[in-house]
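Protocol step 6 of 9: fold each sequence in the batch and record its structure tokens directly after the sequence line. For illustration, a two-sequence batch is reproduced in full.

Sequence one:
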Amino acid sequence: MSDAPTSHVADGHDWRAMFSVAAEQIYRDGGFYDGEVPLPSLLDLAGACNGAVQVVAELFPPSPVTRPMPDLLAGSDEAFIRLIQDNYRHFNDFFSKIAASVLVRIRQAAIYDNVVFVVHNGTLIPVYEMLRTVDRPVKGREMAVRASRKGESRSIDPDGNAFLFIGSVGSSNYGHWLIDDLPTIKAMEFIAEETPITALMSSLGDRIDAVRADGVALGRSQPGMVKPMFLPVEDLVFVDNLYYATPVSYHPILKHPQALAHLLAICNERFGASSLREDRRRLFVNRSTSHPRHITNNDAVKFILAEYGFEEIFPEGLSFSQQRQAFHEASHVVGIMGAAMTNTVFCPPDGHILHLAPNGWGEPFYWDLAAMRGQSYNAFFGVPQGNIDQVHQCSFEVNIDQLRAWLERVVPKPA
């Protein structure tokens, strides 16, 4: 046992006892969507722990959100297409505002299993902004109990560095890291320029951790001023004066447009911006057959796309900068719906995006992303193969006639 504080949960613990780090500011103009945890109770608990958290700066203000309906949804199941359209209309009506994002400093904090806690009088209180309605199905409702049962804990010494936690429930997935986590490096602008920053992140696997390390380095232009520190998810780690940026998204149907704009600006600054050329690239975003959710008639799809000048890429084999560059240079993208297609955030606002997915998987994440970027959103839903109880994992067949019709309408044939 280290000399870290002895942690416990409050007597009579209620899982709803969570600490919103700045509820009054974050949700001042809406964007609070929780039917289980009342906003007044979050305000009351924060008031009872006065001084535990300090707001440093507002990163992005609250914002209204509007989304055009997709340009085209097609598939063999007309009832499913109508269901998606009805769902999208509902999302537009109900999820019409996104909350503000702020940078806070937590006087005494703890990190466990990729969740931040406020430590108040020795009590571990989960940060609400990491356990919202959309996050709890992944992390569960008893994070404070789980963390307090850890037999050992440790503290880390800042040694002159500022500690900034970067993470969310979806950090292990490239697409969620790109959209949910990476834009929060804006927080580094509000930490003294001469102060080195240690980006604290839970370790989630060698491949994604390498990408995340490259990403956080973008937060400062001076080399060596940002270094990553990966924490084992099973460790309970105490940190004093921890910086934390609240979410810039609400999975799967809200992404802060200003946060996405910041992501693009910082990548353009660090990697360079391409000039707008008439001969922009056309990408076919594929994945190997070793993955679930691949195209069963892949050869036929590749053949027709090649006729229209599409080049096949496999983004999982590219570095972050290479992925960004490829999509940044693309005017048209056709690809299998999934994390790699989140890179379409780097495509221009007049880009044409076509997602290929199994029928029955009505994921709205990519529709919302295209809307926030002003891009044309299209999706084709093919006949799934295998166990449709896990339809998002099913491989599927693409309707070649529908694909050709879309290409003829949208994509000029190369000379």
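Sequence two, same batch, same settings:
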Amino acid sequence: MKLNSRFVVLILYYCVTLTLQDNPEGDQVLQLISSAGFQGEAHYTETDDGYELKIHRIVPKIHNGREPVILMHGLLATAADFLITGPDIAIAYLLSNNGYDVYLGNSRGNKYSTKHRIYTTDSTEYWRYSWHEIGYFDLAAITDYVLKKTTAQKLDFIAFSQGTTSLLVLLSSRPEYNSKIRQAHLMAPPAFRKKLPKSQVVFSVLKFLDRHNDEIRFWDLKRLFRIGKNISKTICRDNDLLSFRLCKFLILSVFSTDNRRELEIETKVLPHLINYMSPRVSVMQLTHYYQNMIANKFRQFDYKDKNFQHYNSTTPPDYNLSKITAPVYLYHAGNDRFISEEGVAYLRSLLPNVQEYRVISNWSHIDFVYSKYSRDVLYNNILHALLAVSY
């Protein structure tokens, strides 16, 4: 059973966008934490360029003086990524149960971090950023806030997908932050896009956005999410075997290079994933990835004829990954449709302090945060690495 690229794009927009609440009430992250039997808190900090960020915290049940840990989500996501699978699986709860002070970041533009000192989210100026600014400003502000709040000298960082890209930006562009990071665990890092299969439709969309990102500042996918809600009610039901097989096939066709493998998402979790996603995204976040894929480089945003204004150069500068001296742990999924093993291996070759490089052969991109086996396959290993090193 094969899918052409046009069908895959339709799947991405209409079938993988599972159940969305049109007007979610309250703070869903705090609700998840509370329903799992933990105490949650909301904290706020402001970036140097004026964005107010919401940081969620899980208050540790055991006060044993362990260092704080920051968890950072991926594209179109929120802090909920590290909680959705519940207290028996999710890494945030695992860390909290072992005495870590867990802080969950929310990048600018997601539904928990929508305020700015000057601009509103209806302003095009609000959306003038890519994952470069998320790394350079957001992660710096979150790191500084957590260290000041906890009075710790260092912290641990665990990031997924775009969260890893942004962390690489921070540590290479502001190398003074390396001394603040005890360990950096990068799950599915999309820095280099070597030897990836190209969907012509997706490629064309990204090319169009790259040409017009001055006019199209952000995408609001709420309407598409609502359509996906209705479709998912029909095909993502575990009490209908045939329909669920179709749901599984469609999801794996989008996120995995092997659509015949097991879908590792709990059936009770699957219909609710999109509830916790964030439907707005800056077009520059998408086009920055596209630019790097075309150039086969990991470098700053290409403003084209305006590059000289930004960089005093006609081309954007590469990120100097040799400046990342913090201990780094890299994790790649062997069936990841968005990130190739060659790309992660090349990233590894450029980082001077890689402590571990691991390929999980049967996983897809989303298994790092949604797999029901993630605690046994990966999270316990991350915990072991954290516990093995003390101040």
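Proceed to step 7 once all outputs are recorded. Observation for sequence two: The first strand starts at residue 39 and ends at 46.
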